[in-house]
Design brief:
The structure holds 3 protein chains of 3 kinds. Chain A is an alpha/beta fold. Chain A is built from 10 helices and 10 strands. The N and C termini of chain A lie far apart (45 Å). In chain A, the strands form 2 sheets. Chain A has a 6-stranded mixed sheet, sandwiched between helices. In chain A, strand 4 (64-69) and strand 5 (72-73) form a beta hairpin. In chain A, 35% of the residues lie in helices and 24% in strands. The longest helix of chain A is centred in the middle third of the chain and has 14 residues, at 117-130. In chain B, 67% of the residues lie in helices and 3% in strands. Chain B contains 13 helices and 2 strands, in the order ααααααααββααααα. Chain B has a two-stranded antiparallel sheet with strand order 1-2. The radius of gyration of chain B is 24 Å and the shape is globular. Chain C is mainly alpha-helical. Chain C has one domain (5-335): Arp2/3 complex 21 kDa subunit ARPC3, CATH 1.10.1760. Helices cover 73% and strands 1% of the residues of chain C. Chain C has helices at 10-34, 39-53, 71-79, 81-99, 107-131, 137-166, 173-205, 229-253, 255-288, 307-339, and strands at residues 58-59, 66-67. In chain C, strands 1-2 form a two-stranded antiparallel sheet. In chain C, a hairpin with a 6-residue loop joins strand 1 (58-59) and strand 2 (66-67). Chain C is globular and about 70 Å long. The chains are: A alpha/beta, B mainly alpha, C mainly alpha.
Chain lengths: 247, 269, 340
Amino acid sequence: MHTGIHGEILRIENLSFTYEDNNHVLDDINLVAHDGESIGIIGANGIGKSTLMKLLVGLLLDYQGTIEVAGHPVNKKNLNHVREHIGYVFQDSDSQLFLSTIEDDVAFGPRNYGLSEEEVKEKVDAALAKVHISDLKNKHIYKLSGGEKKLAAIATILAMEPDIIIMDEPSIALDPRNRKNLISILNDIHSLKLITSHDLDFIMDTCERTVLLDDGRIIANGKTSEILSNKALLEDHGLELPLRLQK
Amino acid sequence: MASIDKQLKELNKIQDLQQRSQWMNILHPLGKLLLSVFYIIITVSFGKYDLVPLIIMSIYPIFGFILGELSFKDGLYRMRLILPLVLLVGIFNPFFDKNILFYIGGTAAETGAAVQGGFAVTGGMVSMVTLMLKGFYSALSAYILIATTSIDDICYALRCLHMPKMIVIVIMLIYRYFGVMGAEAERIITAYKLRAPSQKGIHYKAWGTLVGQWLLRSMDRAEDVYESMLLRGFKGDFFTSKKSYGLLDILYVIIWTMILVLIRSRVII
Amino acid sequence: MHMADALVVPAVAGTMYVLSGTAAGVSIKKVREENDPKKIPVMGVMGAFVFATQMLNFTIPGTGSSGHLCGGMMLSAMLGPFAGFITMIGVLLVQGLLFADGGLLALGCNVWNMAFYGCFLGSFLFWRPMMKKGASRAKIIIASILGCIVTLQLGAFSVTLETLISGVTELPFSAFLAAMQPIHLAIGLVEGLITAAVLVFVYEARPELLWGIGGEDVVKEKKEGKLSFKNTIIVLAVLAAIAGGIVSLFASAFPDGLEWSMEKVAGTSELEAAGGAYDVAAGIQDTTSLLPDYAFKGSEAAIGTSFSGIVGALVVVALMVGLCYACRFFLKKNKEDKAA
């Protein structure tokens, strides 16, 4: 639920993480984020982006360092509190939408938090309106296009009014028009957004700040326009300039 | 292997039917489920020679198909899966049961005495026909149910009947992911066929890897689904909204129940 | 192998519902005791997976035909017998509803014939004892094939019994059995092979996903005792032939006694099913007498089956068709008027 906190909402300090098989390490990550910010998390395949995201929502525990979401340290005891404040939009919308109709799926979160049916209905309607798919409310999920599924998946998270929304490759498999539509919708959402993507143009359109990861460390953390135009920096870490900056 | 495509199309068709705003679709699912089961029970409870009341029993599927605006052809097409076993069971009846029940044509058709020129109908013939009718009716009535009621609504009805939540949730998930997996199956088969054009099915050397890899991917998906539930506050329970029922819901079930009981008790005919 | 509604009388269907329901109740309790909330989504997705794989055709080497995956055995090897059983119930119910494979009334029978044997006997009789001291390629292959053959044989046998007890067929027990068992021997063998191939793959890729694997080292016992797939097929084909011979011997020698006892059961079960409704009905008929002149001569005698009776019934049906179309016409008209 949205706390209405202004200012700092996510704090990561000296975060390190190792899998049991000593794979995929995160090393000394430090990051502070504020309400209303939009941060792109970029980096080549397999450098720990997903691990970082899963740590933030408590799907992975046993880390070293500090992670605080809306003032709650992420640990086993606090999971329920933490998850009330943070939402995760999966890369594959079909995994996110596990019920048959959009209405039921979007209502799943609010119902789990024990809201009355009227409140649930309000939240569902508001969430669907935010992503402009109110007319699809009663539609069955198998009848949706890929773009509509993505918006529905985002609505399931918005209905819980989180302070932080994490999105894993939101622009993947979207056609140009759906992608453009998604960009404008995301820019109208004022929670803190963390967006991982290989689509650097998408990051340019949606995030004012960008964090570049490589080998489990933060290599750069600053203005998107500066980082994404730094050809040498990107190429050093397995990336390339956004298409619109390539000549 | 065209069967995947066909089955997905059939699934699509049923889902389209369920989405209609037809009056039968709007009826309360519990009533429709109970009525369907009751109809099938009454149908199969008839004895093997009860041809006459069984013919009368067709009024329920007739009613459902005409007023529910369903296609008889689609309903009959669904018989294909159970037909082989029903045929195997029934087709030999005429050879074993040669009791003559009545004659068609001839002079003394009703008396049962020896007649000339009449066609002797034996018990085996009648019992074969009644068996087929039972098969048709039960398949048709199940079709009426599923064409007007979504699986989610049926699950809701099952919950009303206190079916354990675990089973109901599993049914909902199976239904939700069957479409997704069916599409995956189709992609896998297409990719396979393109590289093995002359084969009818999957070669035995590919059985393990092809299905095994798919299975592992499915397990990963299950993990994602679980995480997605967890992150939205899942604590092992699914909550759904309640459905209200009106006069029509009750009347529909009561009237049909009465008609069926009357047929069963042979008040009608 | 799916049982159809038409083949069972309510008494048999009800009995099987009770049996399957009891097994389901125990399974739910066991799965709840495991207290692993992750199991539910895994059951759902794996159920959909098994359902979807049944649409795949696997070419049987040397023949033109194809086989399918043995769902119960595979599910219980992945999820354990209890969760596997619940999942199979879901699969059978959705199959019955969506594709009319099986029926609503026969669901209890189908759950018993396919899920119960496949999940419980498959895992407790073969899978677990064999995997207790660790798994190997050969053990998985043998357990899968034996499991599938035995559970399918039992399933087919149950189909035969349920049908005969219901009294819908005049087919002698031995003939019915002779038709059912050998076919299912072949089907079981193929399903077992496919199941084995898939489980071996899982074992080699991610052994931790398999249920009931004991021993300290779940690590693959490489090479030692490893049978090639081909050799295994030959060994099992021989085994299957022997088993088939035994079944047909059994079918030809033993059935007379069974048949006799079954006829007795069939005679009573039919009457019992009708009893309650009959009594009520008689009362209603006496008091209301809706259509007093509509009873045909001799309809009592041959249980209402006579030529004129059939004609009368067809007239009623024709009236119903006309009435329904008339209703539909007026309903539509009403709708259009409203819309206009």
